[in-house]
């Protein structure tokens, strides 16, 4: 009774958030929930919806009888195992980067393109990168109404986008700098951190190329051609694919900020049809997964601190650009571990189950 759901990577940062999300649902459609992880974590017992579930080791036979398998694991693990799950009859919903741009794999945000879940020749559905995902519900709603033509985006990305090592690094830096009046003289933040034994820079083992505490770092991901960062190209390519606008003009600058969780994006969006701030607010306000928080006179706008831990995307600072017709400026915040990762993956899994 009820389809079987598997969660691969159950003990990782996103996997743990996933269990939280499953626990917080009023009801779930699943007859069984199977937890799967590497040999190192197999045998652990985790509680899911009030029941003890023993974590199984990742092996081909654990997918037998599984209807939907969610993958929250590194790219290379997904690349190997999502096809195995699909061969065994499961629909794999993958949160890694392994399949996002594969033309035979739909890239799904249910609020935007839920219909694509049944169009899956490889038996695999991909979940977008958290940076793109944090703005997709909002941009999808605005595109449907006003015909999106171009996007210029600056991201303010949280440390947890780099996983648990990113969170640990930021806390270690904050602890080492606490109470110190640093950041006044060039180089003193890095020196204080290094003296305290905290890694500074990628070569020393930090997930970030420069100190993150009391700083902002205009870099996320790996170096691609012509000076672009991989995260910036993902924003461009994934937005085009999800919105179904292959020629959409997109330019992004991705910046890491000293926030633990919740990515923010400043968006300059130009539309083909007439748009106004009021009309945009109405469209966004009608989306069940979006909260509009936009009253500067009352000091109301989205911030990561207010957004973290919640499910909705929060949108504010909506303005008509003064010198650009039919162009809106917006500020969007989304919890990168929830809507940016676990929640969207789970919503896709439920959409697959509902579609039979
Ligand atoms: C980051 N978007 O924030 C990435 C994680 N996939 O680092």
UniProtKB/TrEMBL annotation:
Keyword Transport set for record: no
Catalytic activity line of the entry: L-aspartate 4-semialdehyde + phosphate + NADP(+) = 4-phospho-L-aspartate + NADPH + H(+)
Annotated NADP(+) binding sites: 11-14, 40-41, 160-161, 336
Function noted in UniProt: Catalyzes the NADPH-dependent formation of L-aspartate-semialdehyde (L-ASA) by the reductive dephosphorylation of L-aspartyl-4-phosphate.
Domain of life: Bacteria
Binding-site positions, substrate: 157, 256
Annotated gene: asd
CDD domains: ASADH_C_bac_euk_like, VcASADH2_like_N
Recorded family membership: Belongs to the aspartate-semialdehyde dehydrogenase family.
Domain named Semialdehyde dehydrogenase NAD-binding: residues: 4-120
InterPro entries noted in UniProt: Asp_semialdehyde_DH, Asp_semialdehyde_DH_beta, NAD(P)-bd_dom_sf, Semialdehyde_DH_NAD-bd, Semialdhyde_DH_dimer_dom
UniProt name for this protein: Aspartate-semialdehyde dehydrogenase
Catalytic class of the enzyme: oxidoreductase
EC numbers on record: 1.2.1.11
Organism annotation: Pseudonocardia endophytica
Keyword Kinase: no
Pathway involvement of the protein, from the record: Amino-acid biosynthesis; L-methionine biosynthesis via de novo pathway; L-homoserine from L-aspartate: step 2/3; Amino-acid biosynthesis; L-lysine biosynthesis via DAP pathway; (S)-tetrahydrodipicolinate from L-aspartate: step 2/4; Amino-acid biosynthesis; L-threonine biosynthesis; L-threonine from L-aspartate: step 2/5
GO BP annotation list: 'de novo' L-methionine biosynthetic process; diaminopimelate biosynthetic process; isoleucine biosynthetic process; lysine biosynthetic process via diaminopimelate; threonine biosynthetic process
